[in-house]
Amino acid sequence: MVLPWRTLPKLEGKKRYTVVNGFGAHGGNMTLLLEDAPEKPKVGEDPRLTHALTVSAKSKNSLRGNIEALLSYLDQNPDTDLGDLSYTLCARRIHHSTRIATSVASIAQLRKSLESSLGNAGNIRPVPVVTPTVAFTFTGQGAFYKSVSSQLFKDFPFYRSQVLHLDHLVQKFGFPSVVPAIEGAIEDGASPVVTQLTIVVVEIALTRFWALLGIKPSAVIGHSLGEYAAMVAADVISAADSIFLAGKRAELVLAACEIGSHVMLSVRASVEVIKKFSVWRQLLRGFMHERSRRYRHQRRSYEHRSHPHSFR
User: Fold this and answer.
1) 42, 78 in Cβ contact below 8 A?
2) 7-21, 95-109, 134-148, 255-269 — which is least confidently predicted?
């Protein structure tokens, strides 16, 4: 017996039931009784302003159909909660290789993105089965700013737990905590010990956070202070070793140099261009020296004419 598909109305306070029978050719009989799942009340609100959404399929034609189906659903349900839709499409589904993804702040933005993707669905290339190689570059201390990675620290428990674990090592070695720098609770001109350790801690925590998301580097490279985090990512040294070395390095710099007495200049140019500027600088210096010499000579001549006896 086949019944036409129709939506069964749900009455308040009551569950819906349905029975599925399966008769096998060998004479077996299986019956399955299904009922509505328990309702779970929604607790709290999603604080994020933007949400990621993904639509996927096994082929380009199927992807186009899924996009059209989602647009049709939004037409019929204009009050759809964007956070709930994001959770359903991303966290609750296993995605195929042909896919689109977007980050939006409203249903209107989502519709615009879906309509744009619908026209380009034929040009989408499937995600490769083999994971591509990825290289991580770790920056130096010049990238520090107050409240660095504070949003990640606030919104992602795993990232926060990694930072707190690393900060425990920081304090165990006798260095000041880096958490206030991440939360933005420090004054301008903080100690280099704090700023440099913050960079190392953030970079190591980010590496572990990326690993949680399934992204692991095939190669790493670090500049200056970033070399410590790069060596941790490459399993050359431990996180504790990198924190100890970076902290002691900062303390040695403080002991040997006066704050504000040294600066570093970064020039975005080739060696040939810098040499040209160096030549012009030498010419300008010579010109200014000659001009200063002539000025002094002219001034002495003027004073001699005005006060001839003053030079006797």
Assistant:
1) no
2) 255-269
Q: Give how far Cα 120 sits from Cα of 61, 183, 309, Å.
A: 11, 42, 92
> The pTM is what?
0.60
Contact 158, 213 (CB under 8 A): no
Q: pLDDT tens digit string along 59-99?
A: 999 999 999 999 999 999 999 999 999 999 998 888 999 99
33 belongs to a structural domain: no
302: which 2 tokens?
């003027």
Pair 142, 228 in one domain: yes
- Helices then strands, each counted (H, E), the chain: 10, 6
Single out the residue in 225, 256, 287 at which a domain terminates. Answer: 256
| Coil/strand/helix, residue 134 | coil
Residue 140 belongs to a domain: yes
Give the pLDDT mean for 146-158: 93
User: Based on the structure, what is the number of domains in the chain?
Assistant: 2
The reply to whether 91 and 180 lie within a common domain is no
**Adjacent-strand bridge partners of 52:** 103
Phi/psi at 202 (5° precision)? -65, -40
